[in-house]
Amino acid sequence: MLVYAGSSHPTLVDAVCAKLGCAPGRVRRVRFSNDCIKVQIEDAVRDADAFVVQTGAPPLSDHLVELFILLDALRAASARRITVALPYYPYVRSDKKDEPGVSITARLVADLLAASGADRVLLLDLHAPQVQGFFRIPADHGTAVPLLAEAVRQVVPLDRLTVVAPDAGAAKLAERYAKLLGAEIAILEKARSGDDERARAIRMVGDIAGRDALVVDDEVSTGGTLVEAVDLLHARGARKVFASIVHGCLVGPALERLSASRLERLITTDTLPPKLHPKVHTVTVAPLLAELIARIHRGASIDDLWV
Ligand code: R5P
């Protein structure tokens, strides 16, 4: 078994390899002055069970192209099986044709991964679980929610807790947390116009007055959805508002928005390189990824990891 790191998140791969008791595979990278990338595998990979970990961090296009080239290089070097682990799936929100003339880019990425040499993929907490079906190769879809729920138990008082979905799409996720934490549920209605990155929370189903809130979501990107939810929950009488969100993209104005908001704490994971901020508490997915990789390698079931 060999585990390779793309350039997007080498520290995560170091931690995964430390858990697995192996060193990351050796890769030489060159970027030529015409911007072409060369990737050279420096191990003997003939007949190896190779894993490549690349996450959807910026610069996203560079990381994607590097991944395609790395897969092609592994295939050309006769790796027996190549599994790509994508802790945060690139273009995951481009998962439907919601406007005329747009690409379903999450499906295109799936096609390109298979065309580049991936034999199977390992995904974590997709924005829409249906994205798993974009793959014709085997795709395992895992979740860091139990890990996050465990961290929530340490940080958030549970006695008067309501789990809040910041939009209808997060309702199932909220149910899952509510079951794990024995909490109640509320759902917000969110509006976003076109490509506008600032979402608006406009309505709420459920009661939050005098209670603590835990906003749950698959990702926090610019932080707009989250801070809108925090404002609305406070306006409806919430005591304290926390958040538990798997993918901490935290791009653009996100960190400033967190600083300015009344959010107590954001609990997230390192599926993307973690951002340092006093309100951000990061839980590592390295042991989970290591366990998944080890099980895939030996052909063992992974389902009991999230029941
Ligand atoms: C979208 O529906 C997702 O689940 C998140 O709510 C969204 O990606 C958050 O984006 P932002 O932080 O930019 O509002």
Characterise this structure.
The chain folds into two domains: 2-143 and 286-305, Rossmann fold (3-Layer(aba) Sandwich); 145-283, Rossmann fold (3-Layer(aba) Sandwich). The protein contains eight helices and 14 strands. It has helices at residues 10-20, 60-76, 105-116, 145-155, 171-181, 224-235, 254-260, 286-298; strands spanning 2-5, 27-31, 37-41, 49-53, 81-86, 120-124, 139-142, 161-165, 184-191, 200-205, 212-220, 241-248, 265-269, 280-283. The strands form three sheets. Strands 10-9-8-11-12-13-14 form a seven-stranded mixed beta sheet, sandwiched between helices. It has a five-stranded parallel beta sheet with strand order 1-4-5-6-7, with helices on both faces. Strands 2-3 form a two-stranded antiparallel sheet. β9 and β10 form a beta hairpin. α1 (10-20) packs across α8 and α4 packs across α5 (171-181). It starts with a strand and ends in a 9-residue tail after the last helix. Bound molecules: ribose-5-phosphate. Residues 127, 166-167, 169-170, 197, 199, 217-226 line the site of ribose-5-phosphate.
Helices and strands, with pairings:
Elements: E1 2-5, H1 10-20, E2 27-31, E3 37-41, E4 49-53, H2 60-76, E5 81-86, H3 105-116, E6 120-124, E7 139-142, H4 145-155, E8 161-165, H5 171-181, E9 184-191, E10 200-205, E11 212-220, H6 224-235, E12 241-248, H7 254-260, E13 265-269, E14 280-283, H8 286-298
Parallel strand pairs: 1-4, 4-5, 5-6, 6-7, 8-9, 8-11, 11-12, 12-13, 13-14
Antiparallel strand pairs: 2-3, 9-10
Helix pairs in contact: 1-8, 4-5
Ribose-5-phosphate binds next to β11 and α6.
